[in-house]
Amino acid sequence: MKKTLILTTALLFGMVLFLGAGVTETQAKTTFVTIGTGGITGVYYPTGGAIAKIVNKKKKEYGIRCTVESTGGSVFNINAIMAGDLDFGVAQSDRQYQATKGLADWKDKGPQTDLRAVFSIHAETIDLIAAVDANINSLADLKGKRVNIGNIGSGQRQNAIDALEANGINWKTDFHAESLKAAEAPGLIQDGRIDAAFYTVGHPSGYYKEATSGVRKVKFIPIVGIDGLLAKYPYYAKAATLMKNYPGAANTESAVPTFGVKATFVTSAKVSDSVVYAITKEVFDNFEAFTKLHPAYAGLTKKAMLTGLSAPIHPGAMKYYKEAGLK
Ligand code: GLU
């Protein structure tokens, strides 16, 4: 009896050890990493997908499995990374700057000291599209109209407000402002429920392809009167949106003047050096393959991917840049 008990206990103990070892082994094998992006018709979503595709190819080597989440955009991503709900995210360079310094959406929360830059990616422009039948030819013509300035959590919302304010337009009182997610706007323009919409995105994007291919004709409105804005904020630069990407648009000019920012890849100081190193290394070592994954990356250089960053560069990324002679 005693012997059986000892034997059973020994067996049970052995099993616990065995199971325990099994669990630790699987945990050590796979690190799950989530990347926050934007709406599915933007460029952040395929960008998260492109990074995940490159990194997941080396799952055996690094034990990293990247997944991508569609989100409300830049501000949402930064806040979710800071809360530990996302590991990485794509965010506009202006939003990275504001979060680092505790400005705009982070005025009350203060500087996000754990925010870390990894690299920057494609250029984005701030654009305003309007239905041709709404007779909107300038920002001033938005008065009294129904205009989407973007959801709370998006990068574009503050860009739209800045462009409007620079032109003396009050978004709270001069028109009916909507706070819709970008993915919904083209459909609502087509349904006649809104007249115009702002968005900050790389090109070409599914969003503008959809917006310009409906029955209700849509055109891009020049965003001018922004010299003061460009002088005031270091993260804004003059830009132009090329109409060759959207042959369905009602525009006749080849490029529409506006301003722009950059899409950047960010993380938290709490994410391990080894994970950030592996992701940075795979994207840069497979640069040619990466840039082929979306037409918005045309003309991208490795050097340019180290510009537009205002948060400290994560040490895991820095280790790679030093090794590669990029820093
Ligand atoms: N720039 C937008 C934002 O920060 C997202 C654009 C995209 O999804 O490509 O919210």
Structural description of this entry:
- The chain has 327 residues and is of the alpha/beta class.
- 36% of the residues lie in helices and 21% in strands.
- It has helices spanning 2-29, 44-56, 59-62, 74-82, 93-101, 156-166, 185-190, 206-211, 227-232, 273-285, 287-291, 315-323, and strands at 31-36, 64-69, 88-92, 115-131, 146-148, 176-178, 196-201, 218-221, 237-242, 255-268.
- Strands 1, 2, 3, 4, 5, 6, 7, 8, 9 and 10 form a 10-stranded mixed β-sheet that branches.
- Helix 10 crosses helix 12 (315-323).
- Mean pLDDT is 94; it is low at 12-27.
- Bound molecules: glutamic acid.
- Residues 38-39, 42-44, 73-74, 92, 124, 154-156, 200-202 line the site of glutamic acid.
Outline the secondary-structure elements:
Elements: H1 2-29, E1 31-36, H2 44-56, H3 59-62, E2 64-69, H4 74-82, E3 88-92, H5 93-101, E4 115-131, E5 146-148, H6 156-166, E6 176-178, H7 185-190, E7 196-201, H8 206-211, E8 218-221, H9 227-232, E9 237-242, E10 255-268, H10 273-285, H11 287-291, H12 315-323
Parallel strand pairs: 1-2, 1-3, 5-6, 5-7
Antiparallel strand pairs: 3-10, 4-7, 4-8, 4-10, 9-10
Glutamic acid is lined by residues 38-39, 42-44, 73-74, 92, 124, 154-156, 200-202.
